[in-house]
Specification:
69% of the residues lie in helices and 5% in strands. With 226 residues, it is mainly alpha-helical. Strands 1-2 form a two-stranded antiparallel ribbon. The longest helix has 44 residues. The protein is elongated. It holds the Pfam family DnaD_N.
Length: 226
C-alpha cells in the first residue's frame, strides 16, 4: 500500500515537472562565461533572469525575487547585478506599453549575446589561423624537401618525381626526416633513383621503422648481418 502511494506521488511529481517545462539557456553562455570572466553566481543570475522572462513573463523581476531562488545573500545579488552592469554584460532599458502607455523597465542581455558571439567568432578565426599556419609550415617543409632532392640528384625534379615525394608525405604519411634518411641511404648505396628510395621506405614501413634514428639503427643491423 505504501509502495503504491510512493509511486503515485513520484508519478505526480514527474507530471508537474514536465508541465513546468525547461528554460532555454544559450550553449555559448555555458561555453564562454569563463572567458568573459563571469562567475558561477553571475551565470546563475542570468539563467534566472531568462527563466523569469520565459516562464513567468516577467521582464524585470525584483532583486528579492531573484535572491529568493538563489543560495546567496541579498547583498551578493546586488553586488553581482551592479558588477554585470558595470562590465557591460547586463543593461536595464525603459519600455512603454503600446496599449496602456505605462512605462516599465526590463533587463536587456543583448550586450551579453554580442560578447558571446564575439567569443565564438574569435574561436573560428583562431582555428582557421592555426590551420593556415600548419598548412604553411607543411608547404615550406615540402618545398625544402624538394630542394634537397634536387641537390642530390644534381638536376631539377620532374613533375612525376615531385608528385612521388608529395605522395610519400600526404598518402603514405612518411615523416620528412624518414624520407631524407632514405635518400641518404640511397646515396650511400650509389643507387640514387626514386624506385630504390621507394623500396627503402616500404621496407622500413614493413619493419616498423618510423624515425631517422630507427632507420639508422636498422641499417646498421642490416649491414652487420651481411
Amino acid at each position: 500500500m505504501n509502495n503504491n502511494f510512493d509511486i503515485s506521488q513520484i508519478s505526480k511529481g514527474i507530471q508537474l515537472g514536465i508541465k513546468e517545462g525547461t528554460v532555454s539557456v544559450p550553449n555559448l553562455l555555458l561555453k564562454y562565461y569563463k572567458k568573459l570572466n563571469l562567475s558561477e553566481v553571475e551565470v546563475m543570475m542570468i539563467i534566472h533572469i531568462l527563466s523569469f522572462k520565459e516562464k513567468d513573463h516577467k521582464d524585470f523581476p525584483t532583486l528579492e525575487e531573484i535572491q529568493f531562488r538563489m543560495s546567496v545573500s541579498p547583498d551578493q545579488v546586488i553586488y553581482f547585478m551592479q558588477k554585470m552592469m558595470k562590465d557591460g554584460i547586463l543593461n536595464i532599458d525603459d519600455q512603454i506599453d503600446p496599449v496602456s502607455g505605462m512605462q516599465s523597465e526590463r533587463y536587456n542581455l543583448e550586450a551579453l549575446n554580442e560578447k558571446l558571439i564575439d567569443c565564438y567568432v574569435d574561436d573560428i578565426l583562431m582555428s582557421d589561423s592555426d590551420e593556415l599556419d600548419h598548412n604553411k609550415i607543411e608547404s615550406q617543409d615540402e618545398s625544402n624537401l624538394f630542394s634537397v632532392f634536387e641537390k642530390e640528384f644534381a638536376r631539377p625534379l620532374s613533375p612525376m618525381e615531385l608528385e612521388t615525394i608529395s605522395g610519400w608525405i600526404d598518402q603514405d604519411q612518411y615523416k620528412e626526416e624518414l624520407i631524407l634518411a632514405a635518400l641518404k641511404e640511397a646515396v650511400f648505396a650509389g643507387k640514387v633513383h626514386f624506385r630504390y628510395i621507394d623500396r627503402i621506405l616500404l621496407d622500413w614501413s614493413r619493419n616498423r621503422v618510423f624515425t631517422a634514428q630507427q632507420a639508422k639503427d636498422y641499417s646498421q643491423r642490416f649491414r652487420g648481418a651481411r
